[in-house]
């Protein structure tokens, strides 16, 4: 079974409307997507892991395998909300992926992004003592290709004008 995250990003959930059509990019096992269903949303998910998608299909409306950097979206849809929850830091070209997905956003729709904060106090303390060890899960996850703080995330932001 794929990694199941039990932590809920309350900031993401607070910004999700009810009764919307949502795309969860990097849906994993569907943990977040399942919470969105409780708000009477129709939820679509994509993930690169076949195993994760099989599990997500038990929790959400639609899920498909997709490499978000190279593949076309397997749904012929436009979405009220597109979520990138803790996925962009894993991608080679996150800005290009966001731009690509703008084509799937309804006019007036919104994109919600959450990123791990490398400036978190636990990481700062470790850095103060000269420790920068990559981990399996967490902010220093070995699969993270990019690290962000609020300021750097905004510096790398793309123009979302529709």
Structure report:
- The chain is built from 6 helices and 5 strands; from the N terminus they run αβαβαββαβαα.
- The protein is of the alpha/beta class and 162 residues long.
- The protein has a single domain (10-117, 149-155), classed as 3-Layer(aba) Sandwich (Rossmann fold), CATH 3.40.50.
- A 5-stranded parallel β-sheet has the order 3-2-1-4-5, with helices on one face.
- The protein is globular, with a radius of gyration of 16 Å.
- The model is unreliable at 158-162 (pLDDT under 50).
List the helices and strands and how they pair.
Elements: H1 10-14, E1 21-25, H2 31-37, E2 42-47, H3 50-56, E3 62-65, E4 79-85, H4 94-101, E5 105-114, H5 121-128, H6 150-155
Parallel strand pairs: 1-2, 1-4, 2-3, 4-5
Tally the structural domains.
1
Large-scale geometry: globular
Q: Assign the CATH architecture.
A: 3-Layer(aba) Sandwich
CATH class: Alpha Beta
Jot down its keywords:
162 residues; alpha/beta; Rossmann fold; five-stranded parallel β-sheet; 6 helices; 25% helix
Concise description?
The protein is α/β, with parallel strands linked by helices. It is built from six helices and five strands; from the N terminus they run αβαβαββαβαα.
């Amino acid at each position: 079974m794929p990694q199941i995250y039990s932590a809920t990003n309350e900031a993401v959930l607070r910004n999700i409307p009810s009764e919307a059509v949502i795309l969860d990019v990097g849906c994993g096992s569907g943990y977040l997507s399942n919470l969105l269903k409780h708000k009477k949303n129709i939820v679509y998910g994509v993930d690169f892991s076949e195993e994760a998608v099989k599990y997500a299909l038990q929790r959400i409306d639609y899920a498909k395998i997709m490499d978000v950097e190279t593949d076309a979206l397997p749904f012929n849809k436009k979405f009220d909300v597109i979520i990138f929850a803790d996925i962009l830091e894993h991608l080679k070209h996150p800005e290009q992926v966001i731009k690509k997905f703008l084509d799937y956003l309804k006019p007036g729709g919104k994109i919600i992004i959450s990123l791990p904060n490398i400036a978190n106090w636990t990481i700062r303390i470790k850095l103060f003592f000269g420790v920068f060890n990559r981990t399996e899960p967490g902010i220093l996850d070995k699969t993270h290709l990019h690290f962000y703080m609020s300021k750097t995330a905004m510096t790398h932001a793309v123009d979302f004008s529709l």
